[in-house]
Each structure stands twice: as C-alpha cells, then as structure tokens.
Amino acid sequence: MEPLIALFTKKLGLNVHHFEMFYAQLKAKKVEKKEHLINEGSVCDFIGFLSSGTLRSYVRNNDEEFNNDFYFDNDFVSAYTSFLTRMPTNCNIEALTDSTIHYISHEKLNRLIEQDSAFLKLSKYISDTYFIRKCKRETSFLKYSASERLERLYTLYPGIEQRVSQYHIASYLGIKPESLSRIKLLTYINK
C-alpha cells in the first residue's frame, strides 16, 4: 500500500489520517487469471486499486473482442463511466494474471466525500487520470500510424511486452497480430 499512501500524502497533499479513513473502507479481492472483474451489462459499483497483477478492459462487437485499456500494478481500475452514471457498462475487465485488487464501493466513497470534502481531491485525481488516458488513446487513433501507436504504447506502458500477449497488444492498437509482427520486424530492420 506504499504507492497508495504516497499518492495521498505526496501527490494529493492529503495526510495519513485521510489514507487511514480511505483504507478502512477498502475490501480486498483476488482475481484469478482469465476471471472477470466485471462483465458488460452489469453496473460497476467500485473503484479498485490494483495492488498486483495485470488486467485488460475490452468490448465485444459480435464475436470479436477489442482491447481498450490495460491495468498494471498501482493503477486504479473500474468501468468508470458505469461507476459515474450508475448505468450498465459495455465493457469487460478480465485478469491476464492472478491479481489482487483493493476496492471501495460507490456508496462508501461518496460517504467519505460527504464526511470530508478533501476526498474530492482523490475523486478528481481518478477522473483526471481516466480522462487523460482516454484522450491519449483517442488522439493516437486519429493522428498516428500503427507503428507510431506501438511506440507510444511502449512509452505509456513500459515492459508491456513481458506482461501482455502480442494478440492483446495488437487488439489494443486496432490491428491484426500479423500486422504487429510485420511492424516490429520493419522497426528492427530499420534500426
């Protein structure tokens, strides 16, 4: 929990008491590889902090799956639009490795905010983080080639190749696995 304490005290300017109040509301959940944390059609009632592991978020269209995000150690994880709107989500979140998540419910987070408005800093931080991630992804599809998107992915998620299969990386980039292999080969040849 050291990274979460550092977030509270260093990034958000809150104190250890705020962290302790928050931590007291958290529940822990172990998610096994290939198990879903949330499925489309359900309402997301939590924001989680990924203590360890790797998760992917994806949407289905007919029989195909399209990855739209990855979560690694110390990331916040949620079907955030559903969390905010209280409407069913259209995404799925699946564990790519055995993972541990500490999570807080919508109700408990709102109760903390009502008790102490300083918790709005945490809420804003989580919202800003999701907004920035989504904007970067959207812009990458509008502005960059597949090879440029791959380079940006490596910058955004250092070491992703050791944690996520090429199939899932290709899906996130919006290309077929064969195209990813070709891009990587051309990049290697051109170096």
Automatic annotation (TrEMBL):
Cyclic nucleotide-binding domain location: 26-113
Pfam families (UniProt xref): cNMP_binding
Name of this chain's protein: CRP-like cAMP-binding protein
Domain of life of the source: Bacteria
Phylogenetic placement of the source organism: Bacteria, Pseudomonadati, Bacteroidota, Sphingobacteriia, Sphingobacteriales
